[in-house]
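Sat 14:20. Reprocessing the chain from the morning session after the first attempt stalled halfway. Input below, unchanged.
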Amino acid sequence: MTLIERFRSHLAGLGLDSRRALVAVSGGPDSVVLLDLLVRTQDLHRLELTVAHVDHGIHPDSPRVAERVRALARAFALPFESGRLDLGPSGETLARARRYAWLEAARERIGADVILTAHHADDQVETVLMRVLAGSGPAGLAGMASVSGSLVRPLLPFRRQELAAYLEERGLRAWLDPANSDSRHLRSWVRSEVLPLLEGRLPDVDANLLRVSVQAARDRAAWDAVLDALPGLDLRIEPEAISVAASALAGYDSVLGQAVVLAAARRIGCRLGPSRVGRIFALLESGVSGARVPLGARWTAELTFGRLRLAAEESAPRVDAWTLEGGQGERAWGRWRFRWEMAAAPEQQDRIGLSAWFTPDSLTVRSWAPGEKLKPLGGSGRRLIVRCFQEVRVPRSRRGSWPVLAQNDGVIWIPGVCRSDARVPVRGTEALRVDAEYT
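Finished this time. Tokens:
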């Protein structure tokens, strides 16, 4: 079976049909091969491809490489997105982080569903060995997954040598980055010095490391399944957050409890080491509702309403207040998206729903302030907004980034939390329907 036939077979199992994809093309051999394979198999995957190139601004030839990738995109009649980072002599870790941040921002900007990268089996071997040397736990030894969130690696089953042979056979041109053989970089040192040394003594080392990756990936998948199967755990997933019943977790023995916490953190992309897991269990043992501990980077653990919640830190977005204009529209406020249109008012409204109807007038989306109150629909008396959050068990860490709908500086709706008794239209009359969604 030829490489392109194997690629078609592998791609068919990734579930990427008819989606919009950003293809990361560095200009090197692997990414050029990936782009060529994707173009030649469009009849199968029907992906809407956009070529993306990140110029790190490190090598003096980088502008020329960027132009070469642009020309390649043009030759394939594909849209092209590029960015320059001007990193200078920075480390490989920073370069990787900045590159992926740019790619993710570009994906969101053009509305793509996935980012396709050219990582292959030899990259997996290097990754597993580097994690062994770094003292990674069993789950880390699984290495890279073919699909991880919005990131897809279609070449992961293929070896570097066969990709190079395909490049030559197709007569494709590619740039050889000198950094890939510069032993000052950890991965390049592993690739050019450590692995050849090991292969001289252990010819099967590549295959053995790939086998470690497969076994570890199976164990990781099994623990992910355990999260959904453990009785009483009551797993709940939100965007960049996950929570479990604190009482159930506290009832497990320490080994099982730690394994559950690690599996839960992995599911949302939060990496934990022994000391951070220790912080989580100290928090659990304290039993103090509303207490929080940092987990590094932007992650925190919080004990809230009887649940242990791991989440990316949320702060009030730097978004100015804006007004719903016209009889129809759509606009974002931080991670929230609002849509509005004119529609007949229903007989009843849900007080804690994500949709609400108002008599037509000027409405503003904004942040809320401590001390602000509203009178709940069907309730009596005015209630503090913070009290409304408590009643529907919104964690303290999420409240600061929650928008409200206001009129004349008074809050009339907290989406998903509390609808006020103000501006309620008569049933069947023309009203402004507003829908809110957290993304």
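The domain at 230-312 is CATH 3.30.465.60 (Uridine Diphospho-n-acetylenolpyruvylglucosamine Reductase; domain 3).
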